Amino acid sequence: MAVQLPSIFAERMKSLLGDEFEQFMKSYEQSPHAGLRVNTLKISMEQFGEMAPFDMRPIPWCGTGFYVPHGVKPGLHPYYHAGLYYIQEPSAMAPVELLDVQPGERVLDLCAAPGGKTTQIAAKLQGKGVLVTNDIHAERTKALAKNVELYGVRNAVVLNESPERIANAFPHYFDKILIDAPCSGEGMFRKDEDMVKSWEHHSVEKCVLMQRDILETAARLLAHGGTIVYSTCTFAPEENEAMIAEFLNINPDFIVKDIPESAGFAPGRPEWVRQMLPETVQKTESVLDQTRGTARLWPHLLEGEGHYVAILKHRVESLREDNGGQEESRALQTGQAADGDVINSIESVDQSIRASAPISKEERKRERLMRTESRERNDRHARSGKAQGKQGKENERGGRKNERSQARGADQSSFDPGAVYTSFLRDNLEMETAGETVFYGDRVYQSSVGAARLEGLKVIRPGWFMGTLKNGRFVPSHPLACALNAAEALRSVNLSSTDGEAVRYLKGETLNIEEARVKRNTGTAAKGYVLVCVDGFAAGWGKWLDGVLKNEYPAGWRWTSV
């Protein structure tokens, strides 16, 4: 059954598409295309190819993406609950592919919930570098955090902040930034009929205001020479080519990096801006033609929904080299310099830019404010970062002192949280922890960023959630299990996806497991925490004792399907 499109939308698309309009309309008579993306943090492409439980076809623009047949439900398989793949609309895989993330980079996903693109970025980082993922809506960060944890991401920080506050904490910090911008959603009409119903109430004008602010703030977050990928799932030129042209006009140090016309990607349409938005053209005519190098993904030209993608490249590499800034560039890209050194490097590059490119009074004012805030923050961290961290831990522990003392019959100070945590790792795992160990209340994290830089921000997850301190012992978290591989656990049990045992575990049932099935290192007793795997891939914790595997799979994550 064809989607009933709003008449105003259909009339506008007819005027824009001309001869293509009939083909465009016929695409709404077809079913939307379903896809999944293999999570290479947990499984290789070769392994998944051998194990895949259903037929698949490659998605041309994503090397880890596949179409699945209509009617197949990948979410109703144990592999989904083990985090081996993410169910994702095929066109939505394109922006991260075009971002070209490399291991070791610092990457920001600015409008990230529910987390599909975040997990795609994480797979490309392969556990190296820094991933900061954010959504301004508090309720949506729940799904974002859960997906980060399910898919075994170790180097992510999850925030619930405005872009402006993130920019104050991370000035010119990120090598790559993804902006999957809030938009009017026209490209999703076929996939989600609720988008059709809400379209008339979700104005293009309102989205343009948000997009403009987000893009301008992203420029402050980006390291010099870095890349921003801006994407929407709408056809509206106001939110696409016009938005990019406006950004280029205000930020002359950026250029559009052309996206090849391949795999069904069509070029941007600057002529539509000229046709619809004459006032915008007057301001942006000198840069408008660059938007032809952006990409439109059309439902009548490829197997996917409607999207728009632009690659924005900051062009200062030559300035660094011409001004003897190679060392600053290396420090900014690798993160090897201290925070103060990074700020000094940024100021040095900023001086080079001012000497060679026109900058408005407003831009100078904004840069001065940013540098002042950066100096003040670094001075504050230098003076009191360690002391505050130590005092914060003592205050948090002290706030729970009476409660824990009653439970243990002993004072909180009778054990060292760090020693308890380290002891658990030694007795149960065989792995190296990366980043800074951070204590938030009774919770323990490994953070790729560290506590000082996150000071004052709304932090949902400061890093990889390792577990909780309870009554002088350490209880490992489900996210810790999800990010492990079987070789990193001193004890593991493997369940089959085909005989119902794995599903029973995922439903929270207690299992009878013979001691011989508990795989363990030499000298390790079978009793204790066991990493439970599905066909060899971690799914959660259990506690084994005397032939019984007590289920530690969290209630909120359990399999609820029949």
Provide structural commentary.
The chain is an alpha+beta fold and 562 residues long. Helix content is 39%, strand content 21%. It contains 21 helices and 24 strands. The strands form 4 sheets. Strands 5, 6, 7, 8, 9, 10, 11, 12, 13 and 16 form a 10-stranded mixed β-sheet that branches. Strand 6, helix 7 and strand 7 form a beta-alpha-beta unit. It is globular.
Strand content: 15-25%
Number of helices: 21
Mean pLDDT value = 85
Distance between the termini: 29 Å
> In one word, what is the shape?
globular
Helicity range of the residues? 25-40%
Query: Which sheet architecture does the biggest sheet show?
Result: 10 strands, mixed
Structural class: alpha+beta
Low-confidence stretches: 318-412
Radius of gyration: 26 Å
Overall number of strands = 24
Summarize the structure.
With 562 residues, the chain is of the alpha+beta class.
What distinguishing features does this structure have?
alpha+beta, ten-stranded mixed sheet, six-stranded mixed sheet, 21 helices, globular
List the helices and strands and how they pair.
Elements: H1 7-17, H2 21-26, E1 34-38, H3 45-51, E2 57-59, E3 62-68, H4 78-81, E4 85-87, H5 94-99, E5 106-109, H6 116-125, E6 130-134, H7 140-150, E7 156-159, H8 163-169, E8 174-180, H9 193-199, H10 204-221, E9 222-232, H11 241-250, E10 254-257, E11 266-267, H12 270-276, H13 278-288, E12 295-297, E13 307-314, H14 317-322, H15 326-334, H16 339-356, H17 361-399, H18 401-408, H19 417-428, E14 436-440, E15 443-447, E16 459-461, E17 464-470, E18 473-476, H20 478-482, E19 491-495, H21 501-506, E20 511-512, E21 519-520, E22 528-534, E23 537-545, E24 548-551
Parallel strand pairs: 5-6, 5-8, 6-7, 8-9, 19-22
Antiparallel strand pairs: 1-3, 1-4, 2-3, 7-16, 9-13, 10-13, 11-12, 12-13, 14-15, 15-17, 17-18, 19-21, 20-24, 22-23, 23-24
Helix pairs in contact: 8-10, 11-13, 12-13, 15-16, 16-17
